[in-house]
Structure prediction request, 254 residues.
Amino acid sequence: MPPEPDPTSTPVRRTLALSPAMEDYVRAIYVRGGDEAAVMTTALARDLDVAPASVTGMVKRLHAMGLVHHERYAGVQLTDIGRKVALEIVRHHRLIETFLAEALGIGWDAVHDEAHRLEHHISDSLGERMADFLGHPERDPHGAPIPPRGGDFVPPRHARLADSVPGAHLIVREVPDEDAADLRALALLGIRPDAVLDVVAVALGEGPITVRVAGVDGDVARDVARHVAVDAVADGDAAPAPARVSDPRRVCDG
Prediction:
């Protein structure tokens, strides 16, 4: 087993020489909440679109490197070092998304896949140059918070649109970024970070959530609404600074 790296150093993932596949697993575990609770390997297999046996093999490697805790049938959870690695990866990913949208004008529905391809390969110095160029943004184009460099990070907790009730007056905090078609649909409805909406109706079962944005009604699919983060808006509350998106309706030409 390799010597345990100093958890206060940065970047940890460079000292471990992780492969892109290893980084994908660490990030997937983090996104699933694996820094706080165990994540089942079957869920990782679905998220990463790989066979369960492949997940088992990779988890064993990450466990041997000290990045995760793993017990058979009990799931997998990030160690302190694994969480630090995950935050480094997430920071790069979200900075790249923001740079692509802000500096290059790439639509918010296309930046996730591009950032995923690039996040494993840019140097940490280039990542910090991007942060400097962008003025150290706090959120990416989809409203997701960008972890600070080297510091601790506690992501904000928000309600989900899918759990709302008719009559709720809400402000959108974050939208899901992995499905380009979902992003285009949300953009057409005017649902973007910092948009204010009213819940008009909630269908039974797995039916849609009907919302009103800027006086126009539209339906949000229930599976999408589960990933739209919202907060209640009280009368007189001021909206926060908008997420850094010049035009969320702009989409990729390709």
